[in-house]
Amino acid sequence: MSSRQHIASLRHREEELAHFGTYAFGQTALQPILDEAARVCADCLGAEFSKICRYQPGENGLLVVAGHGWNADVVGFAISVADESSPQGRAFSTGAPQACANISEVNTYTLPPFYLAHHVLSTVDVIIAAKTGPPFGVLEVDSQTADAFDVHDINFLTGFANILAEAVVAAARAEDLRTTIARMQQLVEEKETLSKELKHRVRNNLHLVYGLLTAEMEGAHDVAAIVAFRSIALRVMGLATVFDHLLGTGMNRIINFGEYVSALCNSLPELYLMDDVKLSCSVEPGSIDLDDATALGIVLTELVNNAYLHAFPTQAGNIAVSLQVIADAAVLTVADDGIGFVEVPTTRHGMRLVRRLVQQLAGTITSHSQSGSVWTIVFPMKPLLAPAIA
User: Fold this and answer.
1) What pLDDT, on the 0 to 100 scale, is given for residue 185?
2) Is 277 helix (H, G, I), strand (E, B) or coil?
3) Strand 277-283, strand 317-326: pairing
4) Tens digits of per-residue pLDDT, 55-109?
């Protein structure tokens, strides 16, 4: 080879090495990296064949996992013992590069049959190292010409194998990351399924309890008992309606509060035998956290219950529920056109619960009585966060 040809060969190898590095570290799967490495090495050394053998600890073997130029029965099938009975085995066991000018003249090798089938005469092998543990394997280039490789070829393959070793590590990390992400996704999906099932069961149980309470209200009880049953049923209804809206949402803790208020208003009249009292509802959409929605549902049912029981002792009337969302706050109003009221300190558990829940929400509650009564609750709309993965 003339000096000009030698320089051209070196430039070609440098370019191929740079291109391979860019390609390999841009890949996340290992097999394409190995396939490209085999092609580049055969091309740069002007050889007919190349292969990458991966160490198989269980059988102390070197399996051909990538190659260039071989028949179809070699890559993925051919295996040799990781000892000094073959060129690649000797490179693996000694850790030193191996060049054989003519394998037919070496009596110490017990070669796999594919060497003879492909008329291979000369080989050059370098080790593909690993960060820890045994080497990844061996990179080998093979030629049908005797004495085809020199020290420059060994040096090139050694440098190439070092880059390939780093690419193998990077691909392994990427695979570990994909496996971890896939497992995390599986766990999330499992939790989503369990969460949906739990919500479904809780919802069904709450509706069952609600049905038992409403049935008991139709029994032979005094007024105080019916009021107690109704009070409990209202709170169970509020919780059951929450879970109605959460069904199918997995671990999501966010609820459309406008739809929730509308659903409550549609359900509340069935608890009262007061056909001459009409309940209407006007809401704007707005999403809030499950805990806040549950608390506000109790507040709403208590105030509507208060209107049904006390605003219309002898007359027909109307109860109006409205929800307005204004920037980072919302206004929930319960109004009636009944007899009005005079607010005095009360020992009723319902109203004390209402004020305590509004206070916990960092909201305010006001009331006034003029041609009926109006309760106004203003509460902040907190920023909603994505559900955490436990």
Assistant:
1) 78
2) strand
3) parallel
4) 999 899 999 999 999 999 999 999 999 999 999 999 999 999 999 999 989 888 8
Alpha carbons within 13 angstroms on the beta-carbon side of residue 108 total: 8
CATH code given to domain 3-180? 3.30.450.40
280 Cβ contact partners less than 8 Å away, ≥ 6 residues apart: 265, 318, 319, 320, 321
Query: Which tokens go with 384?
Result: 């909603």
3-state secondary structure of 56: strand
- Which has more confidence, 322 or 265? 322
Are the CB atoms for 50 and 140 separated by under 8 Å?
yes
Architecture of domain 254-380 in this structure: 2-Layer Sandwich (3.30)
pLDDT of the residue at 179: 82
CB 318 within 8 A of CB 278: yes
The percentage of residues in the chain with a pLDDT greater than 90, rounded to a whole number, is 43
The helix (H) or strand (E) run that includes residue 279 is strand 277-283
- How far apart (Å, rounded) are the C-alpha atoms in residues 304 and 310? 10
Residue 281: other Cβ atoms inside 10 A = 18
Give how far Cα 60 sits from Cα of 54, 56, 80, 92, 334, Å.
10, 6, 9, 11, 80
| Residue whose pair of structure tokens reads 């549609």 in the numeric block | 266
Q: Where are the alpha helices (DSSP H) in the chain?
A: 3-24, 30-45, 87-94, 113-117, 151-217, 223-246, 257-267, 290-310, 349-360
CB 220 within 8 A of CB 286: no
Q: Contact at 8 Å (CB) between 330 and 291?
A: no
What's this model's pTM, rounded to 2 decimal places? 0.54
Q: Which residues, at least 6 apart from 267, have a Cβ–Cβ distance to it below 8 Å? A: 237, 241
* Contact status, residue 97 vs residue 125, Cβ threshold 8 Å: yes
First-to-last alpha carbon distance for the chain, in angstroms, is: 66
- Identify the H or E element spanning 376: strand 373-380
Find residue 66's DSSP bridge partners.
52
Segments making up each domain of the chain, as ranges: 3-180, 254-380
Please say whether the dihedral angle defined by the alpha carbons of residues 163, 166, 168 and 174, taken in this order, is positive or negative.
negative
